[in-house]
Amino acid sequence: MINFPEYTVVDLTLPLGPETMMWPGEAAPFAEVVETVKHDDNYARRVQFYEHSGTHVDAPNHFVEGGQAVTDLPLQTLISPAVVIDASVDINGNGDAVLELATVKAWEEKHGVIPAGCVVLLRTGWEDLYDQPQRYSAGPDGLHFPGFGVEAASYLVECGVVGIGIDTLGIDAGADLDFPVHRDVTLPKQVWHIENLTNLKSLPATGALVFIGVLPLVDGSGSPARILALVPKS
Q1: Distance of CA 226 to the CA centre of its chain
Q2: Distance (Å, rounded) from C-alpha 88 to C-alpha 186?
Q3: 147 in Cβ contact with 170 (< 8 Å)
Q4: I need a labelling partner for 116 at 20 to 30 A (CA). Which of 141, 163, 165, 225 fits?
Q5: What sign for the dihedral angle of Cα 7, 117, 77, 198?
Q6: DSSP assignment of 2-69, as one string?
Q7: How many C-beta atoms surround the C-beta of residue 141 within 10 A?
Q8: From CA 184, how far away is CA 143, in angstroms rounded?
Q9: CB under 8 Å, gap of 24 or more: what pairs does 180-184 form?
Q10: For residues 187 and 221, what is the distance between their CA atoms, to the nearest angstrom?
Q11: Residues with active-site annotation
Q12: Cα–Cα dist 125/198, whole Å
């Protein structure tokens, strides 16, 4: 057993099962017991899931024809230093809000320039609404959850980030069904996404190291992933 006495391990992953919050219209993960200890001397299930279920990674080929699949993502990017931008106070429950470039610039004034090679994780406060389905995802008048603004995302790509992540169903704001960040900003530049993160409030603005345990699905446009952060103890 490897011990990390100087670090706390924080799980940023939501449970994956029949109660997992899904993009509207997509089926939740399904598991069928196919072997039991009583009858087969072992327990096993057959599991079926949509590639973009639960806490998951978007690969470039999700929106870019011929783009990288999850098996093509550079391994060195899947263990990355994390920058956490906590915009939850500014967003204040506004499901149509986006991360503005001014917020990123204000973060840099306080913490330093966004470094190349990092993953930027945006805390909107939606991680606290996961037990409220109509707030977290689709209400009676459609999707309303915060996302990355195009200007802010473009700036982060220029900074050389390897990925961006968020505590909502999607990187783009829920009301923006043209998916401009997915389609025009990040994925064409091989910058992957993590969606449906949780426990971002447990991370510092800088200093954490994030491990992205994405499944190597052949031709996968995405994959559920176990996301763990190593946070230095103060």
Answers
A1: 10
A2: 22
A3: yes
A4: 225
A5: positive
A6: ---TTEEEEE-----STT---STTPPPPEEEEEE-HHHHSS-EEEEE--TT-SSEEEPGGGTSTTPPP
A7: 7
A8: 21
A9: 180/150, 181/147, 181/148, 181/149, 181/150, 181/153, 182/58, 182/62, 182/63, 183/63, 184/150
A10: 11
A11: 62
A12: 9
The whole model's pTM is what?
A: 0.95
Residue by residue, pLDDT tens for the chain (234 residues) are 456 679 999 999 999 999 999 999 999 999 999 999 999 999 999 999 999 999 999 999 999 999 999 999 999 999 999 999 999 999 999 999 999 999 999 999 999 999 999 999 999 999 999 999 888 987 778 899 999 999 999 999 999 999 999 999 999 999 999 999 999 999 999 999 999 999 999 999 999 999 999 999 999 999 999 999 999 987
For domain 7-15+51-232, give the fold.
Glucose Oxidase; domain 1 (3.50.30)
CB contact at 8 A, 154 and 185: yes
